[in-house]
Amino acid sequence: MKQLSSAQIRQMYLDFFKSKGHEVMQSAPLVPHDDPTLLWINSGVATMKKFFDGSVVPKNPRITSSQKSIRTNDIENVGHTARHHTLFEMLGNFSVGDYFKEEAITWAWELLTSPEWFDMDPEKLYVTVYPKDTQAKKIWLEEVKLPESHIFEVEDNFWDIGEGPSGPDSEIFYDRGQAFNNLAEDDPESYPGGENERYLEIWNIVFSEFNHKPDGTYEPLPHKNIDTGMGLERVVSVFQNARTNFETDLFMPLIKKAQELGNGVVYGDEAATDVSFKVIADHIRAVTFAIGDGALPSNEGRGYVIRRLIRRAVMHGQNLGIQDAFLYKLVAIVGQIMQSHYPEVLEQAEFIAKVVRMEEDRFNETLKDGLQLLNEMIAQAKKNKASKLSGKIAFKLYDTYGFPLELTTEYAKEQDLVVDEAEFEDQMKQQKERARAARSNAKSMGVQNALLTDIKTESKYVGYEKLVTNAVLKDIIFGDKLSKVAKDGKADLIFSETPFYAEMGGQVADQGIIEDENGNIVAKVTDVQHAPNGQNMHTVEILRPISVGNEYKLIVDDAFHNEVRKNHTATHLLDQALRDVLGEHTHQAGSLVEPTYLRFDFTNLGSVTPEDLQKVEQIVNEKIWANLQVTTVETDLESAKKLGAIALFSEKYGDLVRVVQIGDYSMEFCGGNHAVNTGELGLFKIVAESGVGAGVRRIEAVTSREAFEFMEQKNKLLQEVATQLKITQIKEIPHKVEALQIEIKNLEQQKGSLEAKFASQQAADIFSNVEKIGGFSIIAAKVKVSGMEQLRQLADQWKEKQISDVLVLATATSDGKVNLIAAVVPSAIKAGIKAGELIKEIAPLVGGGGGGRPDMAQAGGKNPAGIAQALEKAKKILEK
């Protein structure tokens, strides 16, 4: 076996399958694109779903990739086992209806054992097969010539996710020798496929050939597929003879840096601290890649995962004696390790490190609160002479403050307590069920639609050059069947060529009509989408009978189309302007281009300030007024990148790409329609900026006529304000408003002064009415003041004069609400009367709630009719 680095292993795998006619697909971003079933890309096949379910037919049915993936369903195992990771890379080769078992098995064997490639010892390789898959076993025996003693039939070798594609699989194991085993050689589990450390699974080949139907039966798929997965981290451990995945070149540079930053703790000295080193190395890889792909820390979804990972790593850093922020220092090291295949990580390292540092600093503040809660719970448990610490509290510490369970367990152990781990696990289970339920209504993977995937009709898009064309109707899909004729209702049509743009890249589909040779309108085009083989498929309302083979005139709605293309050009200008103002870390995260407005989503740490929005808007308008030419060129992918064209991280590009250039200002990959020059846009106006998710902001804007109408509406509103203010010119509004604000401030001061005087006058009457109840003196009264501020003033006067033991005051405000306040002197507090408890008792009677300190508390309510009853209850409490 060759001595190879992780980068060499990855590249050799991809090169091997490229030599077998596979297209090397770039690793997709971890943030899924248009897939609500996934929080993260969690496997190589996750990016192939559109090919396997037939919604898209790939140009090349043979594909290979090294796909970065994140899984956090068993995060607690990271660091405790040899091979659990949150971020991992899955090497895979895929066949979409092309080759099947024979090629998949023989090529796997060639890559693993050929001296030209991995050069593994065949004697150390074992495989498992599904017992009923006699074909796979036969190939291993007869084609590969693998001895039968190296083949094991295992009932679990069947890949099935419930409804959808499924099939048998064959796993390949590497024998690391008895020295690596955690079991005796004669243990029943000491075999390839058993629960042991000797036989390491390095590759799984799935033969996807059945559709698992809702009734539980299996039917053959119209096209059989191959889906394989080889975990890079574990296969690297084999090549580098490492006991675990962590003692490899993928992790050791991170572990060594953490060791430098620690308080003299050395990796390999102690099991507990080794776990911390591993968790830190694992988590910073996942966090770095996730942030690099556009996700940011937050309290929900992907952002919450990132926040949890950072907080777990920080806690494990403290276990190594690292007290200050340190994770951000590891980001560049991740980039250096992965640079050969993921150069973008190092390019973004400064921004990623900034995000991590901010999150570390934030957590260090939260940490104090978490430790305070933990210490309080430990003290409470000891006071109650309990031997266990609540699992619910441990879960709260984990879920809210980021405390790993093992940390809470260690703290508890120091105080001779154990954590109720069963209760903790129950809380974890409930959380996972809630998360699963949130995504369960979306389908995991669809089943191939042979009707659409089998349509191979040539269809050309000509909408870049013309919006009207004559074309032959090639296919009619009517009622989920191919038809020669459609007479009424809805149908999907494919023509030999079309000027209609199919919805893509945020640009909505064109609309229009279809005419016959006599000029009669035979159909209205309501939508256009791409068929699996890439044709523009027109969804239409049939008005007159149409037939396959006839020629028709396709006419795009010119006005609709022109408004869309102008707004599309505006999104490109906006994209670049945001980079100019906010920084290069800003990436497009989605867009929608309609005829009447545009919507643009982008990544950013926080909201955009009004000042920055104004700068962005100014830049876009300056480029519009500069009347820049908009040009397009079609070239190969590498040449486009060399030109400096910006690619969207969520899009896949073919061999040839269109590059849209706006003067010397903007250059992006884009297949959409655009203005001829920026002057056509006329005016650009931002109408809204908001947050739409973790680290994702949204700008809504208008151009041209809509921008003018938006400004006119604003102008009309200002004219109305000027009229109400009784001024003649709009420019006088700010001065008039300023004068009114000063006048209002003066009136409020006068009002406050009068209210204070009125409150003082009432105080004389209220404070003279002291009642003796149950050994305490109390003043309980309803007063006429404007709100809580005046009640607090009365309470301050009461406190200075020490008139009674307890004070309870209530007022009904002008808007129909209630304010309550309670105050108690220290001697009464010692006797058991506490303002906070008192207010909680009486507040429900006025339809509200509240609380506070033992000496002072307040509440609000919605039921003024209950004031008298609340005051009476306050008195009764003193009788107890």
Automatic annotation (TrEMBL):
Annotated coiled-coil segments of the chain: 730-764
Keyword Coiled coil: yes
GO terms, molecular function: alanine-tRNA ligase activity; aminoacyl-tRNA deacylase activity; ATP binding; catalytic activity, acting on a protein; transferase activity; tRNA binding; zinc ion binding
Protein's cellular compartments: Cytoplasm
Keywords: Aminoacyl-tRNA synthetase, ATP-binding, Coiled coil, Cytoplasm, Ligase, Metal-binding, Nucleotide-binding, Protein biosynthesis, RNA-binding, tRNA-binding, Zinc
Chief location category: cytoplasm
EC number: 6.1.1.7
Cofactor: how bound: Binds 1 zinc ion per subunit.
Gene3D superfamilies according to UniProt: 2.40.30.130, 3.10.310.40, 3.30.54.20, 6.10.250.550, Bira Bifunctional Protein, Domain 2, Threonyl-trna Synthetase, Chain A, domain 2
Superkingdom of origin organism: Bacteria
Entry comment, domain topic: Consists of three domains; the N-terminal catalytic domain, the editing domain and the C-terminal C-Ala domain. The editing domain removes incorrectly charged amino acids, while the C-Ala domain, along with tRNA(Ala), serves as a bridge to cooperatively bring together the editing and aminoacylation centers thus stimulating deacylation of misacylated tRNAs.
PANTHER family: ALANINE--TRNA LIGASE, CYTOPLASMIC, ALANYL-TRNA SYNTHETASE
Family recorded in the similarity comment: Belongs to the class-II aminoacyl-tRNA synthetase family.
HAMAP family per record: Ala_tRNA_synth_B
Designated name of the protein: Alanine--tRNA ligase
Species: Liquorilactobacillus cacaonum DSM 21116
Gene name of the record: alaS
